[in-house]
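Lab notebook: predicted structure, single chain.

Context: the supervisor wants predicted structures on file for every construct in the current expression panel, including those that have not yet been purified. This is the next one on the list. No modifications to the sequence; it matches the entry in the shared construct table.
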Amino acid sequence: MSTWNDLAKHQRATDTRHMLELFAEDANRAADFSIRAGEMLLDYSKTNIDATCRDMLIALAQAQGVAAKRDAMFAGEKINETEGRAVLHIAQRADDAAVIELDGVDVMPALRETRARAYAFAEAVRSGAFTGQGGRITDVVNIGIGGSDLGPAMATLALEPFHDGPRLHYVSNVDGAHIGDTLERLDPATTLVIVASKTFTTIETMTNAETARKWMAQKVADPAAQFAAVSTAADKTAAFGIAPERVFGFADWVGGRYSMWGPIGLGLMIAIGAVRFERFLAGARAMDAHFVEAPFAQNMPVMLALVGIWHNQLCGHATRAVLPYDQRLSRLPAYLQQLEMESNGKRVGMDGEDLGRQSGPVVWGEPGTNGQHAFYQLIHQGTRVVPCEFLLAAQGHEPDLAHQHRLLAANCLAQAEALMKGRSLDEARAIMAAKGLTGAELDRQARHRVFPGNRPSTMLLYPKLTPFTLGQIVALYEHRVFVEGVILGINSFDQWGVELGKELATALGPVLEGADASGKDGSTQALVGYLRTAGV
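Prediction complete. Output recorded below exactly as produced.
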């Protein structure tokens, strides 16, 4: 079995090799280093991974127990060891025949009952059977943060062509500008507000919820009648005034950033309807089956994870750019930031010891082609290597604008090609010579036009962005993060790193209102002083 040290030796031995050499040596490299899952294609041939490296990476995954941990997750074992919980977001999209037991009890009947209630409520809102106090619901405001916002907000935007329900709006930031700008355009009498907070105590969410209730009370007699909640805190939702039939809970074995498949997706259900939401679940379920059944070399989540491990932990590339050439996936990089960085941004392993290597990468990105006119300069010619992950549909949703989609696709493929091929000094000199430059000026100008190339990328292609396809994509990345976490020996399903800032913010609230700040450090005291003076 290969080890981290074996892989590190291989990386050092092949570090300066140009990936074009790999294509020259293997005429079938594009096929050999591609994977299909249904109609989806992942091409990772534009990396410096060769057959030997791939075998070593797969051996590492086997040695780290990826298959056993995967099977334990699907079986309902409590693999979130620091919190003593199972990890069963996959149950939310399991088919109707599935039996998934936790502590000897099948979790599926209760899950199906909640889903059926959510579907019924969503359809009542869509059909007009459920109305506001001024008539049919025209707008829905989802108030949440983190996993209660990023996933459903991303998916709602991604599936815009399938919307045939009320308009959806997502509010997350406690900055009053966010909810203020959202609500000022809406009519309280025809607006439904969904408050998404498992505990119904999340400070940002509940502050925004109170603001929304006060806004609604200015026009309607019973504001709570136009609120729904995604929460398990029945006592708190009742105290808020929300009727039990409009409260939809989910278990603690569903982490926030993995929760859009269930009631957290209520806004998306209202936007696209239960039938299309079922297709969204079906896409994720298909990726689940692929993840469980495919051998590692042809397993898309496993190989995408191993490419990430190779680039980050072994090649030392600290960031990863996610570049969807699909405008409706513009929120995907932000969603994946949370999925990856909250899951695998750890410094302690499952054994409680410090990690001996880097943990998860910095994930960032923007949709193409916008990024080409912004940060691609650094990607192509900067001193840091940034592995890129391109996503592209074969077809858009605008048949009359097919020529624009072909231009989009050409740009996407060209960027990946340019990152790999680059441009040599001799090629740049020839270009400058053709422009009439000579001597020292030719050399100076040519050097500015050199592209080092040999910069890695992957390409995820799919026929069209549909509910089914989006389900595949999200589940692919969920499982990719899981595999990386197992290989690194960390718990991808807790998030203790968000707690300290929350605790300190709670303590600083009274200080900003005038309480004694002497227990704070000098910098914090000075900053508080400025804000008090300026009228915070």
